[in-house]
Task: structure prediction
Amino acid sequence: MIEVQNLTKRYGPFTAVDDVSFRVEAGEILGFLGPNGAGKTTTMRILTGYMPATEGRAVVAGYDVFTHPVEAKRRTGYLPETPPLYPDMTVREYLTFVSHIKAGRMNRAERDERIRSVMRKTHIEDMANRACGKLSKGYRQRVGLAQALIHEPEVLILDEPTAGLDPKQIMETRDLIRSLGGTHTIVLSTHILPEVAQTCQRVVIINKGRVVAVDTPDNLTHQLKGAASLYVQVEGPADATGALQAIPGVMRVRVSDRSSGYTGYEVESEPNRDVRRDVARTVVEGGWGLVELRPMRMSLEEIFLQLTTSEQAEEARHG
Amino acid sequence: MADTMHNITAVAGKELRSYFASPVAWVLMGFWAVVFGYFFNVYLTYFVETGMRAGMFGGPPTLHVNTDMIRPLLGNASVLVLFVLPMLTMRSYAEEKRSGTIELLLTSPLTDVEITLGKFLGAVGVYSALLLVTLVSIVILFGLGSPEWKPIAAGYLGLLLLGSSFLALGLFISSLTANQVIAGTVTFIVALLFWIINWAADTAGPTLGPILNYLSVTQHFDDFGKGVIDTKHLVFYLSFIVFGLFLTVKSLDTERWRG
Ligand SMILES: Nc1ncnc2c1ncn2[C@@H]1O[C@H](COP(=O)(O)OP(=O)(O)O)[C@@H](O)[C@H]1O
Ligand SMILES: [Mg+2]
Result:
């Protein structure tokens, strides 16, 4: 649905986006993850036809954004970093105007229904007659989303859709985005790491204009971790290390925490080998009393740190 | 084609609404009405007094309402245009850039030409409202005497063309900056240059002189004031407008490349 090939954008001598390529399949939610200044906004502005790339190609919903901008824009909803609102207009007037320039001609009843429907989806019905300039940050963001949805686009490009919202609004916005997945192809950018894990099926990690990794949140975890880990907590001060170590497939065991009456172990096993059943049996047969057993996953946050730090380390080496 | 018209109308409608939603259009309209009303009063008093004096001393009726009242009045209106219109167009692109709404326009399925024409027509709409206000005084004159309507219509056509030229110029300059004060000031200065450019014509020599004269926007207005509609003046104003709008479209495109 979206195909980006070797996209490069230079501002004068400065390269903001450097040879970026990725694909987004229909119905997928792709997270565009990177720290501030990574080139997320620049990439999205190219995808939405706001600015041309210096090099490379982008095809959105079957149309090249440089050679067929109007066709591509007709199929793309875009929420810029700052919602593009006119402060003097009421929410309803604003959505009416946007529906005219984005959805083109339609009869009055159809247009009214369209506007009502996006206001319902984004929970802004109560604000219909409020001037856009008088809205809270949360509502501004939602009106921005409503605006992006008004022409029923196949593709949604959302630039930091939860930035500046309070935790409750963030939850609501993520729910809304998840509910739009499947029927829409979505690219959302963020520099908040848990966001991609919660909302996206695939992640493109971008740093200093370059793509550093592309994968599912789960795979990225595995890829970096190499091996799978389990966390096991047993009753008593007993030492189960030896017994756990003896289980076939277990590579390493270490005590991770010890509190009054409980001992926690980290059990690292060979990749793609499920040792949970054996671990449970060993603990019970040893008479220790199993309190907890769960897979440990490295959070995306850690992955991200790892990726960016290794990049930085590399650069430092090259001087 | 129908879609293009729809898009242009949508942008023009939004422009009109935002002009009248902000105090700018109302303040301008008030200013315009007061100043025009003042001129009207001055000329009317002069006209009536001179006419009475002529009647009293049995002299020939020298004054004519068209040439001695309406013509100088519209001439004054044309000066007023120079001061008022830069304030009308200064916001148009500059404010959209400052607030980021330009991102909405440029990522909507609109062409740069549709956006520019919409903005231009919106501004022309507000300007036409200003002209309509002045028609009130003309209507009063019809009540007092019997002016000829054809020279009046020609004068108004001239005012419309002159003003629209300045609007096209103002749009272009507004498209170059995100600061509306700069846009307004530069527009005023450039418009003033086009206004007085023929002052230098006499001393500019045989080749440059006529060119400067030709570029003078006032020079082309005079005939309209006299009630004459000459194609060469029509062509001048229409070219000026088309060129201004063309530059605006180009400027939007360049802005894109610069990012
Ligand atoms: N119009 C511009 N002119 C010059 N540099 C720019 C411009 N826009 C962005 N940049 C630079 O390009 C880099 C990427 O910016 P951006 O795409 O906004 O990153 P992100 O959205 O990931 O924070 C930054 O270093 C930024 O300073
Ligand atoms: Mg950004």
